[in-house]
């Protein structure tokens, strides 16, 4: 079936952040996760640096990720700011997910492109992941907790590699949510 502009527009406009508390624990087939990662691999990348890296958590690894996130929150939150609800959410969200992917960036060792371009490339890869999830009826959400941003040791990151957040995924029973965007005309200046 040919890809039409209408189908592309529909897919992009149906993409939503769907949170782990709504996931139904149905497993995601590995083939779909691999397809999603392959689609991410086709994101635009200046000078073909391909800076995206992925750490995929499934099965029992989700509980280990939850333990890490909960422990990080517990050990790095001043007592006056501690929230039992945030602690529990940190610990439980990975376990509610079918898959969580640490979104990482491997900086080009020669720094041949500006870092912001590498970050933009990784964000484009994540958009490809999100659109693939949407097409498969899988909910997803990109979260950037401090625990993920400082997870070098936990994730075993290489030199020059850093984590940019966690991509939670799961099938869900949510009804289709309406979009919330102000008109693009309010954000556009035409220059003639």
By CATH, the architecture is named 3-Layer(aba) Sandwich
Q: Helix share of residues?
A: 40-55%
Shape: globular
Count of helix runs: 7
How many structural domains in the coordinates? Answer: 1
CATH topology: NADH Oxidase
Question: What does this protein structure show overall?
Answer:
This protein is an alpha+beta fold and 192 residues long. The chain has a single domain (15-173), classed as NADH Oxidase. 41% of the residues lie in helices and 16% in strands. Strands 1-2-4-3 form a four-stranded antiparallel β-sheet, with helices on both faces. The termini are far apart. The model has no long low-confidence stretch (mean pLDDT 96).
What topology does this entry show?
Blueprint: H1 5-14, H2 30-40, E1 52-57, H3 61-76, H4 84-96, E2 99-106, H5 115-135, E3 138-143, H6 146-149, H7 152-155, E4 161-171
Antiparallel strand pairs: 1-2, 2-4, 3-4
Key descriptive features of the protein:
NADH Oxidase, 192 residues, four-stranded antiparallel β-sheet
Offer a concise description of the structure.
Helix content is 41%, strand content 16%. It is an alpha+beta fold and 192 residues long.
């Amino acid at each position: 079936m040919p890809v039409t502009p209408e189908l592309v527009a529909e897919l992009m406009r149906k993409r939503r952040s769907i949170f782990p508390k709504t996931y139904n624990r149905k497993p995601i087939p590995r083939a779909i996760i691999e397809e999603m990662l392959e689609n991410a691999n086709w994101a635009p990348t200046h000078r073909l640096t391909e800076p995206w890296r992925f750490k995929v958590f499934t099965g029992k690894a989700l509980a280990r990720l939850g333990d890490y996130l909960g422990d990080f929150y517990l050990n790095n939150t001043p007592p006056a700011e501690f929230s039992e609800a945030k602690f529990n959410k940190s610990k439980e969200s990975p376990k509610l997910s079918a898959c969580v992917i640490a979104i990482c960036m491997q900086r080009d060792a020669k720094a041949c492109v500006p870092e912001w371009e590498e970050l933009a490339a990784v964000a484009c890869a994540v958009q490809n992941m999100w659109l693939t999830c949407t097409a498969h009826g899988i909910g997803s959400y990109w979260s950037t907790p401090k625990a993920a941003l400082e997870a070098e040791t936990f994730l075993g990151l290489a030199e020059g590699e850093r984590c940019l957040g966690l991509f939670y995924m799961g099938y869900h029973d949510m009804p289709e949510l309406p979009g919330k965007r102000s008109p693009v005309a309010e954000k556009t200046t035409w220059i003639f």
